[in-house]
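To: structure desk
From: M.T.
Subject: fold request, one chain
Message: Could you run this one when you get a chance? Sequence is below, nothing fancy, just the single chain.
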Amino acid sequence: MTEDAAARSRPGGPGGPGGRPWAVAQHSPDDGPGLLAGAFDDAGLAVTVVRLDRGDALPPPTELAGVAVMGGAMGVHDTDDHPWLVAERAWLADAVAAAVPVLGVCLGAQQLAAALGAEVVTGPAPEIGVGSVELSAEGRRDPVLGPEGRRLAVVHWHGDTFALPPGAVRLATNDRYQNQAFRLGRAVYGLQFHLEVDDAMARVWAPDLPAGVTLAAPGRRAVAAVGRRVFRRFLGVAAGR
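Reply: Done. Structure tokens follow.
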């Protein structure tokens, strides 16, 4: 986790219904909640960060107000090297079954899709850098993404993609990958793209970007502005507002 994300992602505030905290599942040191941590703080919510890469145990979903699952360099099928991916998928399935709000980001969206019975496969080519997605008709009506208009500025960094889980609706797409975001029910969201990238995260990611790819500040900060609004609305929907 980047230092500024770690400073914000700490237990505190009143939590969700019944004082329950949110859990943020983190898969690697460089893929923390970023701007999402600030949204939790602004909403006064308690947060527990679960470092799966360090062997942290996943709390029972029924003890949580919500779940957020972040990105990572590993893939859904890399279970030999990262056996906790299997447990995380079971945890996500249990969270959805218990009507706990869920947000999956990049790998987290792929894990969520797989947990809900959808296929996750390697795409035709990696999609990396600042870009955009277009909202579907359902996306434009969606209370979390819809207020942004027809197109969203996003950060991409993925090579895998997912099918839509049974019963889910496609919220966003682009000409590279058909399924960029989905929603199941009221408050289960999978976002293939990143909206959480803050300045500290961008600095940490920069050395690993492919040659010729940058997360230039003007474009990235436009994405950050989208992310702050989207995360605020998601937490409102999750709280039943």
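Reply (cont.): The CA atoms of residues 77 and 207 lie 25 Å apart. Let me know if you need anything else for the meeting.
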